[in-house]
Amino acid sequence: MGLLDILLGRTKPVAPDLDRLFALPSAAVTLEAAAGFTPTGQGAVCFATVEGGAFEQTHREVQELLDADTDRDGSPVELSRDAYGYSWLVSRRPPDRLPELVNDLHAVNSSLEGNGFGPQLLCSLAGFHDGSGRRLALVYLYKRGTFYPFAPLPGSGQRRDSALELQVKAALADDLRIEQDLSRWFPVWGAPGL
To answer: Looking at residue 134, what DSSP letter applies?
Structure first.
């Protein structure tokens, strides 16, 4: 970053640090103690849909890598597209196996990044619930290297539980690098894995 960048207020983008995903299991313990949310065993990686042979080959490699895990309890990794045209690679594990789910999310991100598709990566999420119908996702923003909570209100269409999101933000401040810019807490309506 040069003097002109400093004078014009430009900042160097934060480099993604996929190893931050490995903080999710310890954050889950804090989340359960603070708010009563436990893992659902579902998670997903979102990326901009790319067409072409190279991407299809990478997708097949990721699928084979994760499906080869004999410990998956017969739950295959699924690819789906949302209403906005984004692709989601969804992984399911037993709820008490959050570390393995995090390994899946890390492997998907690393494979896509390693094959030159890092710019298409958007976010990863791990799903949680509290047993009373409330859902929550801890969302990792790939390009920012930060997390934020997303809590849709049950049965309300597209409305969020902002109070819960702020409560989770405060509870996990010591466990995860939380995104401080609330305008970047994008809703992930209908995200698979949530």
So the answer is: -
Rounded distance between C-alpha atoms, residue 188 and residue 21, angstroms: 18
Q: Residue 190 falls within a domain, yes or no? A: no
Per-residue pLDDT of the chain (194 residues; tens, 9 = 90+): 555 565 666 555 556 689 999 999 999 999 999 999 999 999 999 998 777 777 778 878 877 777 776 565 666 678 888 888 898 999 999 999 999 999 999 999 998 898 888 899 999 999 999 989 899 999 999 999 999 999 999 887 789 999 999 999 999 999 999 999 999 999 999 898 78
User: Which token pair is 39?
Assistant: 């893992």
Say if CB 25 and CB 100 are below 8 A apart. Answer: no
pTM: 0.87
Give domain status of residue 7, yes or no: no
Residue 182 has, within 13 A of its CA and on its CB side, a CA count of 5
Any idea what the Cα angle at residue 16 is, between residues 135 and 194, rounded to 5°? Answer: 15
Whether residue 78 lies inside any domain: the answer is: yes
The C-alpha atoms of residue 188 and residue 194 are separated, in whole angstroms, by 9
